[in-house]
Amino acid sequence: MLNSLRVSWCLFPLLLVAAVANAREERSFRPVTVSHAEVRLDVHGKPIDCHDGCLEYFAGRYYLYGTRYGETDGFTPANRYVVYSSPDLERWELHGDLLADTPEGVYYRPYVKHNPTTGKYVLWYNWYPVLWEGQYGVATSDTPQGPFKIHNDNVRMAQPRPGDHGLFADDDGTAYLIYTSIELGHSISIEKLTPDWLSSTEENSGVFASGCEAASMFKRGDRYYALFGPNCCFCPEGSGARVFVANNPLGPYQEIGDINRDETGRVTIPAQQTHIARLPGSKGDQYLWMGDLWGSRADGVKGHDLQHWSEPLVFSPDGSIAKLKRSGSVEVEVVTNRTD
Fold first, then answer.
1. Residue 203 CB coordination number (10 Å)
2. Would you tell me how many other CB atoms lie within 10 Å of the CB of residue 25?
3. What residue ranges define each of the domains in the chain, with the CATH number in brackets?
4. pTM of the entire structure?
5. Where does the pLDDT of residue 48 fall: very low under 50, low under 70, confident under 90, or very high at 90 and above?
6. How far is it, in rounded angstroms, from Cα 96 to Cα 146?
7. What DSSP element (H or E) covers 7?
């Protein structure tokens, strides 16, 4: 009897893995059309005011994190972080302010990931007690919709006076921040975070580009990608999206192109990059390029500026990414069941 129990217990992890795999296999998908030619509305018919943030898929639901600008010019302490969620990328529900008890300052770019080790949802954000003396804050929540509680509002980083950033979590549970240093000419580098993702190890890739903003990072297969464009603060003309690749999250990185410029060097989509969303699909993960169409509002309200979501990015065997296409809408697959 004891031996049989031991065998059963040894098999338990394998059975658990099989159950998880089967649950994933049972996922079903359907296509939805995402429009970026008109203001998106929430379930109450109000415009979605959610910019320069990210789109994530957590526990069977899609979450859109961003900055709410309202009727301001975007450079005031009135900025607030908000989160919307949706079961299908079509019906969006506002959950309200994301971050509680914030010191007065100007806030931009909230990014959220789930730490599988601690079980916490972790928010990294950049804010300015005085423009443009930037610093990073980190906050946590037990749920993806928050509210998030501030853990540290001035995280020590290897590079001085940080600006724009993006949060990336690797398959092994290690997290990294790709970010700019305003003091070093808006230079780009990548930095490894501590296992709880609440501070930096200050292990840094070193600068590999400058004069840049709106950085994002993701992984596909065994390649790491870093994308960003030139400085373009709220610019209506949009910005390019330079693509760098590496075999290690801290590099070295090699530039392989720009997916938001045509063959003449002209910007294709007049948007500034905010995120590369990694979402489940029927044939594997889908990667969506997201950018804010600054100055696109028809009513003059900054908070009503549109946001462009690309069709799923197309990758070549050599790792390069096909250039973005300008269109009024795209088709994306969404999960239709809740097995995960």
1. 12
2. 8
3. 36-335 (2.115.10.20)
4. 0.92
5. very high
6. 9
7. helix 2-25
